Amino acid sequence: MSKKSLPTTQKQGKARLGDQIRSIADRLKQETDIQIKVTSKILGAAAQIAENHDRLITEVVDMVESDLNLESQVSQKHIYTIDILKQQFKTLRNAKAHFNLKVSSWESLANKLNAPSYQISIKQHKTQSNQIYTNNFEDNSNNIEKLIIFLEPDVAEMFPNSEAVNEALRFLIRLASKNCF
Q1: pTM as predicted
Q2: Per-residue pLDDT tens over the stretch 89-98
Q3: Which of 163, 171, 175, 180 has minimal CB crowding within 10 Å?
Q4: Is 109 exposed, middle or buried (0-12, 13-18, 19+ CB in 10 A)?
C-alpha cells in the first residue's frame, strides 16, 4: 500500500508546486501590468507638468513684455492731470508738499509738473533716492492713514518711486490670481 500511495502523493505534490509557480507567475504578470499602467500615468503627468510649465513661462514673459512696453510708453513722458493729482493727493496742500512746489491751484500744479524742464528733474530725482514711500489708503471706516514702507538700498535702486513698487506688486497679484497659488 505504501508503494501505491507514494507515487500519488508525489504527483499531488508536484501538481501543487506547479499551481503555486503558476500563481506566482500570474501575480508577477499582474504587478508588471500595474507597474506599466502607473509608469504610463506618471509619464503623462510629467508631460502635463512640462506643458503647464512652458505655458506659465510664456504667460509670464508676455506679461513682463507688456509691462515693459507700457512702462516705456509711460516713462517717455509722465503726464499729470488735475483729476489724477486730486485722486492721488486729496488736497492741494499735500500735492504741493509732495512735489515741493509753490502753486496756487491744481491747474498750475499740473502745468508745472508737465513742463519739459520738470520732467527732466523728475527723472533725475527718481534715480537719486526714494527709500521711503508714503502711501495713502482708506480703511472701512473711511479714515485716511499713511503707510510708510522702508526699502533697502538695493531694492530702492530697482524701484525708484512708489509707482514702480505698486506696479511690481500689481504684477505679482495678477500672476498669483492667474495661477491660483
Answers
A1: 0.29
A2: 899 999 888 8
A3: 180
A4: buried
